[in-house]
Structures
1.
Amino acid sequence: MSTRAWVSRFLPFAKIKKLAGGGLSSHYLRPYTARWIYFGLLKQARPFYLTECWRYPYWEFPSAEAASVLASASSSEPDLLFLPMADWHARTQRTQHLARALAEAGHRCFYLNPHLGFEYAATYSRCCEHRLAQLAPRLFELHIRLPSEPVIHQRLPSRRESRILYEVLRRSVELSRGGRLIQIVSLPFWLEVAKKLKDSHQCPIVYDCHDHLSGFERLSQEIIGLEAEMFRHSDLIVFSSQTLLDGKTAGLPWLRAKSILIRNAAGTVETPPRQVERARSKKIIGYVGSLDHWFDVECVRQAALRRADWEYVLIGRIEDPSVLQLAELPNVKFLGELPHSELDAHLSGFDAALIPFRINELTLAVNPIKLYEYFSYGLPVVSTNLPEVSMFGKLVYIGGNPEDFADKVETAALESDASIRQKRISIARRETWAARARQLQAAFAALMANRDLQSARVPPEAGPEGSQS
């Protein structure tokens, strides 16, 4: 697909997001304006992840059919409820990887679709049922239908919305073995409902703190402002980078005491053979990930200008229009957001891979998943100076400014030492999501043991008769 065609296909959806940013009234109009104007008039505007979720078998929830399916997937491990930042069916990120790995490790996992109704083809007035879909053995997706379909990055849920969320989620808790369920929260948007589930059903809260939230330009301040309370109410905080852990817990020993470090990781798939000869003259330099405000356009521009005979492939959804400046260069190609299953064919053809992030609070705290994914293929990685990348020393190439970045791209793409490539692959095979799941399981075991101990110390509440005296 040409750059022009890609832009005309995917940018209309960016306008949809703006509909939810102009005040409360626009939030309630969004379900109609999006479907009738954009999804109605622009047939290609509906993103694939809003339809991909319905390719899996699903049932009304709660229902006898859903309960039966869930019963067949129960195990002795605690159930896990993921309250995420990202849609399962969009770009695969940390939460999806962890959920899949923990389901494979024996946990029955519930992953809440964060669109809260926007994924439905019809508006709430025509379809108001909640649904449970099965994504894989022991891995389920919950679709909770809220009338206004809130954008979870832009405002907190109303009291009515929190009540609906709680009523549906508590049914999943009550279907757990002995009510043994752990909540894994990725965004303070979910704090109110998580607290209710903890108070009513003793479901511990694990806050997976994987980003410096104030670094996101489109995340509402009221959500960012709740993170301190999120820390306070959580039983365990998991940080994805050392910088993030050190920065958030500095001077707070009580927070440090209940925090652990679990970095990102690579998948367990075997590294495929290279599809192209390494000695070819035309190199392919690639990037996979969001094209947002943290993407350093100038670094990529300088690299593309330096070697106009090489091809630069950018895979990901354009979130910031400044990235479109690169469309002017004939050797830069935009492929758009691709399903995770299609990335292998591209990654195995890259000669070098990029992490061109601007240096700011957000990026300095990040542990890039793409680094491990690039390492899975043995790829030379060129990055700006990020702590969690530079710690790999000679296995990566660090560009201090756009000109230096371009120099490093040229050096990396011409790398010929097979032993360095093998060292990267070895790291990726060791640092897997399955290994991260085992770390989490050890932490979960301690959480549940403490919960059971606390339960044994608290006398049971008075029954209905006693409560009326």
2.
Amino acid sequence: MYKIYSIINGSNFVQIPLSQSNFSLNEDKVLEEAKKEDSSIVFIAYPNAPTGNYFAEDKIIKIIEESGCLVVVDEAYYEFGEKTFVPLISQYDNLVILRTFSKAYSLASLRVGYLLSNPEIISEVRKVKSPFNVNTFSQLAAQVVFENKEILKDSIKKIIEERERLTNKINELPPFKAHPSRTNFVLVEVGSKENADLVYNNLLKQGILVQTVSDPAFSTSRYFLRITGLLYSSRQRRDATYTKD
């Protein structure tokens, strides 16, 4: 969405490719682009999507310190890994953290999120945002979730457990490789376009929709599927049904 919103706002968008071997961040290339005269914002997904990995903290700090830009760290999947740059807000006046209720709290259709930064940046954002950008129902739903986060921790824990179970099971099936994830999904390398099509279509026949992934930012010649992990309770109900039958 960074690219789409950049285009809508008439801004140039530059995407920096990740390492082909381990999806790591090329901080030197990021800084090369960020230091150009017309650069103003650097977006970093932490953890990244669709690769699911964290970038090295020292690389991101280097970008914050040397870019001369506003650095926006998108922590949409924070609850599934709980690594954060929030403690650094007081140290860097160009750091912004984004969070959402769409992932761990399942409120994607309500479009609710929040921004964490220093008072100066928050004040500037308030000057330009729509005065009614979140409707009343969305606000109330988010408030209920926020006030009951402890109750939802068990569901998040089960999603993480299921993610790890799914990763381990897939890695028992060469040539498939499930990459380590700190999100609610798993990126699976499938070896070929034929494998990608075969798995996608067979899962679809069983009522399971996965996402094919083709993104030059991290690969130009490899084939991937992105699988969102099932809740353990859903799998448990399914297994119970099979047992009963």
